[in-house]
Amino acid sequence: MTATQLNRRHVLQAVGATGALAVAGCLGSDAEGNSTNTNQPADEEGLSAAKAVDVDQIARDPTDIPPPVDWTNPRTHDVTIRTQKLTAEIEPGVTFDYMTFEGTVPGPMIRVRQGDTVNLTFDVPEDLNAAMHNMDFHAVYGPGGGAEATTIAPDDDPTQISFRAEYPGVFIYHCAVPSMDYHISSGMFGSILVEPEEGLPAVDTEYYLGQHEIYTTGDVGEQGHHEFDFEAMMREDPTYVVFNGQAYGFTEDAAGPLQAETGETARVYFANGGPNLLSSLHPIGNVWSDLYRDGDLLSDPAINVETTPVAPGTTTAGEMAFPVPGPVKIVDHALSRVVHRGALGVIDVQGDPNPNVFDAEP
Ligand SMILES: [Cu+2]
Asked: What was the pLDDT predicted at 219?
């Protein structure tokens, strides 16, 4: 076994055997299993105490996706997006002030068919930090992808734009005000899926995940309220790299793994909000059997890709089969982000063993 294999095996065993938080370097567990800051002293100034949370979970449910397109004539969709500023936990005991589209990270997936029209109403309700916001859709022909026309402040009336989805694919949308990196890092991104006229292949389950970096004044795992750290963002040195806004959100330590059964197929829509880091997207214990590179839904998909780069500002779609039971771990294969910073989500595949494909005890 090479050193590389050994190290990789150790990482996987650690993540699998003990749960993500326990291998997150600076974290331990108290008797109740709550994470504690065991070996990393607080900043000299220290963090203020964790704030009361506005929501139990900032992470959008990855299965909360509009159903596949089943219409064949162009439709018009009325979509309303409101901004919401919410305090929530990045991980247990670590609070942060998120900025969101519709109260979750990522924002809702918008799903239309090529040629459909979207009438968007964008609203910035009263907001504690009085920030301006807007929406830049990468699926839109027009100035700023709609950003110029949607820019409003909390006192303004809701604004409206209308656009026709001219080109199919999976695309990011994000806030694009002058401090857009800060706004995206606080949670302001999501995806719009424009299905080709002929639709997409049927799968049993679809998941919607969004990766982004959170830059804070605290150390990873440090208990308390983490303020935004603009200098760390300038250095592109994040505290957390997370899926759906939450460190290790879809593991036993938080909301629990996603569910699938053997024999099923799944498609993952994976949006990288960034704002800065490229993701190396890999399903541990599986492969992207059909990969729609960079969200390109018109070219033939790439076949059996292990790890695919997902640039900031891109949504990739990848399909998987589940011939055997066991966890499939979705990671950014820049593995320090998995072990230390939160970039891990698990799909728990249940079903009968299939020893012809995999046998752990031959
Ligand atoms: Cu914004």
From this structure: 97
